[in-house]
Amino acid sequence: MGLKIYNSLSRQLEEFSPLTEGHVSMYSCGPTVYDYIHIGNARTALVTDIIRRYLTYKGYVVKLVQNLTDIDDKIIARAQTLGTSPIQLAQANGEAYFEDTQRLGIQPADVHPKATEHIPEMINLIQTLIDKGAAYIVDGSVYYRVNSFNEYGKLSRRKPEDLLAGARVEVDERKEDPRDFDMWKAAKPDEPYWDSPWGRGRPGWHIECSCMAMKHLGETIDIHAGGEDLLFPHHENEIAQSELATGKPFARYWVHVAFLKIDGARMGKSEKNFIFLRDALDKYPAEVIRHFLISAHYRHPLDYSLESLQKSESALKRLRNCLEALKKYEQETPEITDEHNSTSQDAAETDTHLLSAIKTMQAQFTDAMDTDFNTAQAMGSIFSLVSQVNRSLGTSNGISDQIFAQAYKVLSETCQVLGIYTMNAQDVAGTAEILNPLLELLLEIRQNARDQKDWDTSDKIRDQLKQLNIEIQDTHEGSTWKFLSL
RNA sequence: GGUGGCGUAGCCAAGUGGUAAGGCACGAGUCUGCAAAACUCCUAUCCGUCGGUUCGAUUCCGACCGCCACCUCCA
């Protein structure tokens, strides 16, 4: 069974096969850097990240390009109110974007092109469209003539009359058709500008993506991703520009990520109901936020709430407990076959159960992710195996070490695809050299107290450490400690 | 007005034309000096409402109710 992707263009689940075998070109619409990104923005970036991780996991060589829109009306306006320059503002927020996304465990794209660094290419593309009669110049601005592309509307399925009927925006009388959009905006006084054959100005938003996608990935790309709000008009316009210029299909699979909601409504900057990703990251570990963001399918809306984050934290704790219990078997050589030596009947039974649970999990995980990256379902398969592992750990007498090692391998690999088991709190602490012996000592003292049934001392140590976010657990093999937060 | 989506247990959330994954929470129990972790059991005869198609629908079709989004910069 191969990968299927829901293509917004056909509005169907389609078998995925890249243009070049074994290679996938992917473009994701990045942020307009006039502010920090909020969790809603992060959802799209995260989905892109996971798609890329999964494609890589499947053996594809992926080239991911994500743009940075670093010149636009909002940046200019914001810079004015802040008393800074648009360039500086974009620079600072661009850096903040990488900082925030990397904290969330999002791997940088292969290329992060900036609009301002591709002005000549954009001018060329616009000129090509003018030459083909698909654009016209008015007062130093260049407009795309929507009528010249007869497939216009194929992505959003909007008919011209529908668009006109609903138009709430003021009609620019200079346009031939209200649907026409600008590819080059003539500069107003005090605005940043670049020279062009049509005078000083700056590029429109849509031409940026057309241009940078094609420059870095070629005229036809495999996957184009973005938030669902970009479907119209942005992606529709990208198609119009690119396909008319090249005569080739622009993107083969269109992936649109649903909104993150808050209190039932869309999280949006203009609604002022957003939460900056960096603020969320200050309160919750990255893995918790990731878990939350992928707990629903990417094409379904997801409602943000503190309760949901807390649920994710609890769920992740269960996962983590299991993985940590399993980790000590990591060094064992994972056994692949069903045939292995078991001296006890019970252990053999445990092995068989676990082994089949591992296989089931692998199949279910792949199946879920193959079906349009169903992370929620994939997570279900992971937790099913966690249950079986926990049961097996309880009945194990040491004979199933290789199987546990295999379970660890499979679980940690799949969790890595989702990015929910990448960090190790013990290492993150960074003070392990001091902390380890110190805690060993405390545990030893506590064990002595317990041997003498001095529960007061024993409990005091445990309770006090818990205040410090360190949890002690007494098991049959002795006492262990770990950091409470993930 | 046009276009699209959603409504599944207390909460979150998968999913299927043949009878409901997973997580969180709650309750009971096992284990433990007590905890913690883990395990066991308990949690939807039912998937917004009403019709229709079907041997059979939560899953397909229609209507209705409720909610959300896009058509304007927005991931």
Compact summary:
The chain has 486 residues and is of the alpha/beta class.
Polypeptide structure, described:
This protein has 486 residues and is of the alpha/beta class. The protein has 16 helices and 15 strands. The longest helix is centred in the last third of the chain and has 26 residues, at 345-370. The protein is elongated and about 90 Å long. Residues 338-342 have low confidence and may be disordered. The protein binds one RNA strand of 75 nucleotides through helix 1, helix 5, strand 9, helix 7 and strand 12.
Strand order of the largest sheet: 4-3-9-10
**Computed Rg:** 27 Å
The first-level CATH class name of the largest domain: Alpha Beta
Secondary-structure-based class equals alpha/beta
The CATH superfamily title of the largest domain: HUPs
Number of helices: 16
Query: In whole angstroms, how far apart are the ends?
Result: 35 Å
Content of β-strand? 5-15%
Please describe the topology of this protein.
Elements: E1 4-7, E2 12-15, E3 23-28, H1 39-57, E4 61-66, H2 73-82, H3 86-103, H4 119-131, E5 135-138, E6 141-144, H5 160-166, E7 181-186, E8 201-203, H6 205-217, E9 221-227, H7 231-246, E10 251-257, E11 260-262, E12 265-266, H8 277-283, H9 286-293, E13 302-304, H10 306-327, H11 345-370, H12 375-395, H13 401-418, H14 425-428, H15 432-451, H16 455-467, E14 470-475, E15 478-483
Parallel strand pairs: 3-4, 3-9, 9-10, 11-13
Antiparallel strand pairs: 1-2, 5-6, 6-7, 7-8, 11-12, 14-15
The chain binds one RNA strand of 75 nucleotides through helix 1, helix 5, strand 9, helix 7 and strand 12.
